[in-house]
Each structure stands twice: as structure tokens, then as C-alpha cells.
Amino acid sequence: MNETMITLVGRVTGEVTHRRYGDDKDLVRFRLFTKERRYDPDQRTWVNANPMYFTVNCWDTLGAAVRKTLRPGARVVVHGKLSLRQYDNGDKQRFDAKVDARSIGADLVFQEVAIEHEEWTGPAEPLTQLDRPAPAALAA
Description:
Single-strand DNA-binding protein; NA-bd_OB-fold; single-stranded DNA binding; DNA-binding; Primosome_PriB/ssb
């Protein structure tokens, strides 16, 4: 099995599902359809190439947010760990691609999103380096 970090842009297909493991682990899962869009100079038009489906796993807090937010057809950006597996299913070789998502966001090329911000409770002034003590103070 080969694993690497990946960022995908695509569309949620099918339903967003939820499963609970034990008392403290939640898994929310959906399928992501993605394709390469490129300009074909011979046809003088944009064409779709390399369509792929990924299973996206979202655990715990991220999963809860995905479950409340995403619906089939939503265009999203998914960043996470890609796991590829090839296996034999009797008469055919199969390929499975999963992403354990670390973060998910809206694809703002196709939609506007209003982000609700919690009130900032940090310092009012920009953070600066701490004042350094004078060299004489260090020698004492």
C-alpha cells in the first residue's frame, strides 16, 4: 500500500454517510468525483480527462462538520492522506483509492461561501518580538 499527502478538487457524489465506532470514534464518509479539465488545441475546446472516484474518510470533529455541511453535488477541496490499494476480486483486478481527510473546504471558483467568525479574543495589537534585556543585565 502506497500513502502520500494529496489535495483534490471535485464534487461530492452520493450521500454523506455516518458510522460510529465504539463510544468515541465517528467516521463520516463520502465519494468524491474529480477530473482533469484541459484545453485541447486540436478541437479548440475544453475537454474532460482522467475521471476518478475517491472515498473520503472524515473522522470525529471534521466528520461532524462535513455531516452538517456537505450535500451531493457540493464542489469541495479535500486535503489528506491518500491510500491506494490494488487487489484481486476473483476474475478482475480492482483498484481502491481512499483519502483520510485532514481538511475540507468549499471550491470558491463555483460558489460563494459566508464564513462565520467567532469573536477574536487575542491581543488587540500585532504580536512583536519580546524586548531583549540589555547585554549588561545578562552579564550580572
